[in-house]
Amino acid sequence: VDADNAEKDLDSSHQLKTLAEHDLDYIDRALKSVKYNKSKAAEILGIDRVTLYRKLHRRHMQGGDPVAKV
Q: For residue 1, what pLDDT band results from cuts at 50, 70 and 90?
């Protein structure tokens, strides 16, 4: 981990983000880049569309926005 990238990975409490948080951030970026078309986002991410839906559902069940529009 180089120092420049490590700083970007810190959250507001100065702790490193979890792998799951990085995963969701990357999913959000992919969704935004294709105007929230889940099929296209899944293709970009290299995962099955069902896997994307499962990840979004899991986030929703944990109290997060199922499709965060950042």
A: very low
DSSP letter, residue 15: -
Does residue 7 sit in helix, strand or coil?
A: helix
DSSP letter at 18 equals: P
pLDDT > 90? residue 13: no
The single-letter DSSP state of residue 16 is B
Q: Which residues have a Cβ under 8 Å from the Cβ of 48 and sit 6 or more positions away?
A: 42
pTM higher than 0.85, yes or no? Answer: no
Question: Which tokens belong to 5?
Answer: 């990238």
